[in-house]
Design brief:
Helix content is about 45%, strand content about 10%. It contains 24 helices and 20 strands.
Length: about 775
């Protein structure tokens, strides 16, 4: 104990809220320095968080989304109220917010989950948010996400307003959320979003600047009624301002740069990564192609998707006629199954008439595709499309050369490479014959190799296909055909979708393995005509790659490939340090978790001990409550390394820097335990002991260096040697090993005891004889 007594006094800084230190003496009444939950601050936080939740729910265009987000916000604000109402265990209660929010969110996701795991639900929701445009479908995976996120936002705003005693700070987190989500509001929901979010926010500002509690208490009811009426009249102009601002770009600014307004590179999912499922079913006299979209922008190296333009979309006419110039002769019936998050209906090339029962899709005249207005495609939905008979080669030969000015972007292409220049000199002048000549020369030498994933196809690749290695993927071959068409003067693009299918039962199904790319060329009087073809030769693959599609009409190339299986034994050479490293990588996480639990055990035991002591003290009375609060202070001092279990409360005052609260608590303990307050102590003394003890423990802990505080958290000093054992304590777990001793030590000890006893008797007998 000499090391503890020789320590210099511990500096416990005074609490700024308490003013200058007072003289030591009996405890006096003082205001509670612990921040109490202000009703005005919590109301501001709740209203502003509700406004942010309403604005965020507008992204989904669903009142259910707004309700889930508002429930999370109110949960966070209410949790702050619970934290500040409790006297003990606040850090634990704060940490419990996240598990409780996750639990509530998880329960909210159960309806409609169809047995899917929470991770799958969240993954689907996030993927939908990236792929689809607002309003996004409110899938079950969004419910826990909204509850957890807005519980944190509501807790952050209410905590800032209450702990810092500045209600204005409650507006900061929700205001940032409103600013971020306003740019993602759908056009049809901007008015509703502005009212649903603006009115609570105006109410929060009104509560914030209505006056503090002290000033409001001095106002008469008549004055409050008049101010409420004036506020109601001012609310009407606020609503009108919100309506006007919702129609401008002030509340819902348009993005300065919209990535979707630029041509994008296509993203391809390998067939091995795509889940094999039925995408849709087809009933038709033709085998395709079934169009999803097109790559019609060429930047000199890569083919890109057409930029998104909402002005290009127009509603389908009531009679279903989309191109009156085309006479329908073939009708195709589609039935959607599991198309995922796509917004585009699988369709036909050259659609002339469509029928979408119960739906009002939008038609993209540039791509000749149909898409839903909001969300994803409906499942198990049947619709029909009609198209004319595809033109024959003889009909296309009759089309004159030239293209309208609007199709000139589809003729943009870099200068042709030498091999193409040579072919163009030999090609005929007729546009179709010219294109057919170039495709025939390409298919004569090209060899398909690999999967058809999109990638860069510069003019040099076309040169390599014609006069180099002649090997290319199916996508590179189709891209080369599109470039050859533009060099021949024919507008072209790459269509993508599906081709053919397989008969399953009585229906023809389309699966991911039926994905295809094909050439589309434009001819006056017909439009974008698909040109379906496959290279006559393909390179034999010696692996089992699932991305490789086998076409029985494609023959092997002239290069002979033979599969030879040679049995060999593979030896793996691994160094010792690699083996040790692998073992450590497996063991270290569990060892770290065990170490963390071991280090956290003292803190858990001290928390349990404090709760047990306080329950014990409440049963015995005020004297026990005062003693427990002071014992908690001295045990904390022991963990900080400045405790002295032998000093009385008044003696310990000399060990630390003079502090008014410390003096009051020491005198209170002395008087209640030994002095004049022993028979009369009551609720006032218990409340004073709790407040003084909590304030002293908090300030003493915060005044120490970080290293000292960290060591105090994991210290076992106060558990091993508490300040007093007259109140309940929790002993640390100490394993005791009981090893039975052999029988011979016990026998030898008995013999020694008998020998000592007989020698004592002999000495006593000799003494009597001598006497």
């Amino acid at each position: 104990m000499s090391t503890v007594l020789d320590r210099p006094p511990v500096d416990v800084p005074p609490d700024p809220a308490q003013g200058p230190p007072e003289e030591a003496g009996p405890p006096a009444a003082r205001p509670d320095e612990r921040p109490r939950p202000s009703g005005r601050a919590l109301a501001v936080a709740a209203l502003s968080a509700t406004a942010a939740a309403a604005m965020t729910g507008g992204i989904f265009g669903s009142w259910a989304a707004r309700l889930f987000a508002e429930a999370g916000a109110l949960l966070g604000v209410g949790w702050v109220y619970l934290v500040f109402r409790r006297r003990t265990g606040r850090p634990v209660l704060q940490l419990l917010l996240l598990p409780v929010a996750i639990g509530v969110g998880g329960l909210s996701a159960i309806p409609g989950s169809n047995g899917r795991s929470p991770g799958e639900l969240l993954g689907t929701a996030v993927r939908t948010g990236r792929v689809l445009r607002p309003p996004i479908p409110f899938d079950p995976g969004w419910r826990p996400l909204l509850v957890v996120v807005f519980a944190i936002i509501g807790f952050a705003g209410a905590w800032l307003a209450t702990a810092a005693r500045r209600p204005k700070m409650a507006l900061l987190p929700p205001l940032a959320v409103v600013a971020l989500t306003a740019i993602s509001q759908p056009a049809q929901g901007q008015l509703v979003g502005s009212l649903a979010a603006g009115l609570p926010f105006l109410a929060a500002v009104a509560v914030l600047f209505a006056g503090d509690a002290e000033g409001a208490a001095q106002l008469t009811r008549q004055f409050e009624a008049k101010r409420l009426v004036r506020g109601g009249f001012l609310l009407l102009p606020g609503i009108a301002a919100l309506v006007l601002l919702s129609n401008s770009s002030f509340l819902f600014p348009k993005p300065v740069y919209d990535p979707a307004a630029k041509a994008q590179k296509p993203r391809s999912v390998p067939l091995s990564a795509a889940r094999d499922r039925v995408l849709f079913e087809v009933a038709a006299p033709i085998t395709g192609p079934w169009v999803i979209g097109a790559l019609d922008v060429y930047d000199g190296t890569s083919w890109r998707l057409a930029p998104y333009d909402s002005k290009r979309l127009r509603p389908v006419p009531g009679d279903g006629t989309v191109d009156p110039r085309l006479s329908p002769s073939v009708t195709v019936r589609f039935t959607t199954r599991d198309l995922g998050d796509t917004t585009t209906f699988p369709g036909v090339a050259l659609p002339s008439h469509v029928s979408f029962p119960g739906q009002a899709p939008l038609y993209d005249g540039r791509l000749q595709t149909f898409r839903v207005r909001t969300g994803r495609l409906p499942v198990n939905y049947t619709y029909e499309m009609s198209l004319p008979a595809y033109p024959t080669a003889a009909q296309l030969q009759q089309v004159p050369s030239g293209a309208p000015r609007g199709l000139r972007p589809f003729l943009q292409v870099p200068p042709p490479p030498p091999a193409v220049q040579h072919l163009l000199k030999e090609a005929p002048d007729n546009p179709w014959l010219r294109l057919d000549f170039l495709r025939a020369r390409l298919n004569k030498v090209v060899v398909a190799s690999g999967a058809g994933s999109p990638g860069p196809v510069p003019p040099s690749k076309v040169q390599d296909l014609l006069a180099g290695k002649h090997e290319g993927t199916p996508f590179e071959i189709v891209a080369a055909e599109a470039l050859l068409a533009r060099w021949a003067g024919v507008p072209s693009r790459i269509g993508f979708g599906f081709d053919a299918g397989q008969t399953e039962g009585r229906v023809v199904t389309i699966r991911p393995k039926n994905a295809a790319q094909f050439l589309e060329v434009w001819f006056a009087g017909y439009g974008w005509v698909p040109v379906i073809g496959a290279p006559p030769k393909a390179k034999v693959s010696l692996d089992t790659n699932k991305d490789t599609k086998v076409d029985p009409t494609v023959t092997a190339s002239d290069d002979v490939a033979v599969e030879v299986y040679v049995p060999i034994e593979l030896q793996t050479f691994q160094q010792l340090y690699q083996t040790v490293r692998d073992v450590l990588l497996r063991v270290v996480p569990f060892a770290g978790a065990a170490l963390a639990l071991y280090l956290a055990l003292p803190w858990v035991q001290r928390t349990r001990r404090a709760a047990r002591r306080r329950r014990w003290a409440v049963r015995l009375g005020p004297a026990a409550v005062v003693a427990v609060e002071y014992a908690e202070l001295r045990d904390l001092a022991t963990d900080l390394g400045v405790g002295d279990p032998f000093d009385t409360p008044l003696e310990y005052l000399q060990r630390v820097v003079a502090d008014a609260e410390h003096s009051q608590l020491a005198w209170l303990v002395t008087r209640v335990a030994y002095g004049d307050l022993a028979p009369t102590a009551g609720e006032l003394e218990m409340q004073a002991a709790r407040e003084l003890g909590e304030s002293l423990r908090r300030r003493m802990f915060r005044a120490q260096p970080f290293q000292t505080r960290a060591l105090a958290v994991v210290s076992r000093a106060s558990l091993i040697d508490p300040y007093t054992r007259e109140i309940p304590n929790i002993e640390l777990f100490k394993p005791r090993l009981r090893v039975p001793l052999p029988s011979w030590p016990r026998a030898s000890s008995r013999r020694r005891r008998r020998a000592v006893a007989s020698r004592g008797r002999r000495l006593a007998t000799a003494g009597r004889r001598s006497s």
